[in-house]
Amino acid sequence: MSEVVLRLTDVVFRRQGKEILHGVNLTVRAGEHWALLGPNGAGKSTILGFCGAVTHPTTGTVDVLGGRLGRVELQALRRSIGHVDPRHPLRSPLTIREVVLTGVTGSIDTPPRWQPTPEQLEQADELIALLGLDGKAGERWPTLSQGERGRALIARALISDPRLLLLDEPSTGLDVAAREQLLETIDLLTRTHPRLASIVVTHHLEELPETTTHALLIADGAVVSSGPIEQAVTTASISRAFGHPIRVDRHDGRWSARAARTRSTEVA
Ligand SMILES: Nc1ncnc2c1ncn2[C@@H]1O[C@H](COP(=O)(O)OP(=O)(O)OP(=O)(O)O)[C@@H](O)[C@H]1O
């Protein structure tokens, strides 16, 4: 079996007298691609905060890349985790190439007096091409579409050669074509980076990459189902998690969900 990249054991999280997570278990291994699914307020971002070595659990343990949160230096751990956040707080008009290079420095802006090595520049350009942004390396952040920004941020995350890639609602704000291009790119990573493990957070089954292997479905801070995606994502589990009768389908590797309605003709 592949090595464990991430393990959450009996994780409980309390804030302001409220229990937000009630004992979550999750084991992610190298090469696995997880979806973290659930309705608004279920606790997805909170779980992603542990995976990204950003927050500590109240009780329970979180082991990320062999280091236990609370015992290892978080900054060092974070360098091995690629975190793609669509709300990336960039203010200055960096070019795509510069944005990708901020993945080397782990900063939002290019640090003063920092110069990339020729190898880092070459790697940035290779990733820019891999992410389908060929010929756009010199274009500036404010002029980019949401889809281009998303792909630039994935290149930024990959330049530090992470073992774990976290994608927080990567399709938010994308039109259908941009979403499909992004999903194709994420699928491509399974071939170019076969050891990489990933976790995609989403509310929408339609936004799952075809290459998703596992899913953790949560509702109200508790696990509804977890495991290989075909077992974890079913009409019953999704209906339970979202508190509504939802029919789940899969066609050509892609998932879809819609309300399970009884047609009036069938009722008659
Ligand atoms: N630091 C905090 N203090 C108090 N409550 C918090 C804190 N962090 C999260 N919560 C609460 O915990 C619950 C889970 O939040 P979380 O953001 O993890 O859910 P989510 O599944 O990511 O939701 P969404 O899909 O809306 O982004 C919410 O009710 C939220 O208000």
Secondary structure topology:
Blueprint: E1 4-15, E2 18-29, E3 33-37, H1 44-51, E4 59-64, E5 67-68, H2 74-78, E6 81-84, H3 96-105, H4 118-130, H5 146-158, E7 164-168, H6 176-192, E8 197-202, E9 214-219, E10 222-228, H7 229-232, H8 235-242, E11 246-251, E12 254-259, H9 264-267
Helix pairs in contact: 3-4, 3-5, 4-5, 5-6
How far apart, in Å, are the first and last alpha carbons?
Answer: 53 Å
Q: What hetero molecules are in the model? A: adenosine-5'-triphosphate
Any guess at the CATH architecture of the largest domain?
3-Layer(aba) Sandwich
**What is the strand arrangement across the widest sheet?**
6-7-8-3-9-10
CATH C-level label of the largest domain: Alpha Beta
Structural class: alpha/beta
Q: Write the CATH fold name of the largest domain.
A: Rossmann fold
Question: What is the H/E string?
Answer: EEEHEEHEHHHEHEEEHHEEH
The largest β sheet comes out as: 6 strands, mixed
Number of domains: 2
Query: Approximately how much beta-strand content do the residues carry?
Result: 25-35%
Shape: globular
Query: What is the gyration radius calculated from CA atoms?
Result: 19 Å
Whole-number mean pLDDT: 92
Enumerate how many helices there are, as a single number: 9
Total beta strands = 12
Under CATH, the homologous superfamily of the largest domain reads P-loop containing nucleotide triphosphate hydrolases
Pfam families: ABC_tran
Protein name: ATP-binding cassette domain-containing protein
Keywords: ATP-binding, Nucleotide-binding
GO molecular function, one term: ATP binding
